[in-house]
Each structure stands twice: as structure tokens, then as C-alpha cells.
Design goal:
The chain is mainly alpha-helical. The protein has helices spanning 6-24, 33-63, 75-78, 82-131. The two termini are 32 Å apart.
């Protein structure tokens, strides 16, 4: 004999329905979600290209030697663009990593909102079908 209270059975029944309906539904496609994901992907790609460009450009500036400088000149006179190269490598890398993080955050947020929208839609559908299964044309699990 089952010793589960009737209210717990009803709650479990609703959660079983939510799970079944969520598996059957596609994720909610909100207006602008695909455009936001595409823009974030393009920005992500562009930021990685700039990370590589900053690294290569910075290394070129670091290794540049002034042809007019002689060996007895100081390091700063022989390599006049060292500080520019260091600034380009560090600054460019850090800034583009922030852009990569922001674009990945946008993609993750859009995906999360889509999944949550599907879950709450299924929850609403399951709650309505449990309270009045004939109101919406029968049981949604029979489809």
C-alpha cells in the first residue's frame, strides 16, 4: 500500500508532466535571439583575430632595432618601440579578452533564456492540463 499523501502525489504528477512536456517542446525562439547570438559570435571571432594581431604586432615592435643605432647605444636607443610593444601586447590582450567574455556571456544568456522559457511554458501547460484536462483539448501527453 502506498503511504504517500494525496497532495504529494498531485505535485509529483505535475512535475512528471512538466518534464514530459519540456522534452517534447522545442526551445522558445525569442525575437532578436538569433541576431544577438550571431552578433556575439561575429564579435567573438573578431576579438580573437585582434588578440592574435596584438600579439604579433607587439612582438614586432619589441624586436624592432633602429638601423641607425650602434652597439654602444643604450637599449632604449637601439629598440625605440619596446614600451609601445609591451603596451600593445598587454593592453590589446586584456581588452580583447574582456570582449570575448562579454560575447560569450551574451550567447550563454540567450541560450539560458530560451531553455527557461521552454520550461516555464511547459510548467504552465502542465498546470493547466492538471487543473482542467478538457479545457485545452485533452491531455498534452497524448499527442
Amino acid at each position: 500500500m502506498d503511504k504517500t499523501p494525496e497532495s504529494a502525489k498531485t505535485d509529483q504528477h505535475v512535475w512528471d508532466r512538466v518534464g514530459a512536456i519540456t522534452r517534447k517542446r522545442r526551445f522558445t525562439d525569442y525575437p532578436g535571439a538569433r541576431q544577438a547570438t550571431f552578433a556575439a559570435s561575429c564579435l567573438n571571432w573578431f576579438a580573437w583575430i585582434l588578440v592574435a594581431g596584438c600579439g604579433i604586432g607587439g612582438l614586432l615592435l619589441l624586436t624592432y632595432t633602429d638601423p641607425a643605432a650602434r652597439s654602444y647605444h643604450s637599449f632604449g636607443e637601439r629598440h625605440p618601440f619596446v614600451w609601445h610593444g609591451i603596451t600593445l601586447v598587454l593592453g590589446g590582450f586584456l581588452q580583447m579578452m574582456v570582449v570575448v567574455m562579454i560575447s560569450n556571456f551574451v550567447k550563454a544568456t540567450v541560450s539560458f533564456q530560451s531553455e527557461v522559457g521552454a520550461f516555464f511554458g511547459a510548467f504552465k501547460e502542465a498546470a493547466v492540463s492538471v487543473s482542467d484536462p478538457h479545457r485545452w483539448g485533452g491531455d498534452p501527453l497524448d499527442a
